Amino acid sequence: MIQRSMKAPRRLSVSLRSSVSLPAAIAVAGAGLLVTGCAGADGAATEEATVTVLAAASLTQSFTAIGTAFEQANPGVRVVFSFGPSSGLVSQVIEGAPADVLATANTATMQTAVDAGVVSTPQAFASNSLTIAVPAANPANISDLAGLAEPGVLVAVCEPQVPCGAAAQEVIAASGLPIEPVTFDIDVKAVLTKVILDEVDAGMVYATDVRAAGNDVIGISIPADISASVTYPIAGSTATGVPELTERFLDFVMSPPAQEILTQSGFGSP
Fold this sequence. Notes:
alpha/beta, D-Maltodextrin-Binding Protein, domain 2, 2 domains, 9-stranded mixed beta sheet, two-stranded antiparallel sheet, elongated
């Protein structure tokens, strides 16, 4: 933990609230209750079908809602998620970790999986942009990007090898400001948590994460001429054991109901 020299960090409860509400069309399409098994021809319960999705940490709220909607529209199907840094997820898939679907926070990271032959042709399904998050009390009185370069200001960013970190480095370089992060975290959720807990004065995160955090943080825009945006691709694993179900999930992510969830979460068009 990074300790402040002036005061102890506030202990706020971490509440990454999702602003996503399922569209009415989804509720109608998935009105049937999800069960733990499907009935076979003889009336006996059969094993539940599962699709395993590895997705970037910034997709946690939106993909959780999309997974619920997919389950409602496909009774007897369960979606299992693993969220984390895109680079780490790609490494897991390359190393043989069980996965049917991979969704990353930028195209460069996905390309590593494509080059390794572990995923099919990706599709872009959403976009996001980098912004500044500060604690609700804004103790450093930051109002713009230049505030991150002030002496004594503690700034958190993601590790350079993950998409949010690469985007942060792009912004810092383009700004020409002497911004020197004091911590490099594993993913955007880790950065946001440090901001919420007042362990740092500011963090560079995605606009969707600021929205999900609600009143726990304040969002400060980065000038458009130096702002960094990312495109999110999704692809099926070439080793999937449920190819039909995998394709069905990929199609669902591109469908209007799922795209509406992403829009409500703050994502843009790909």
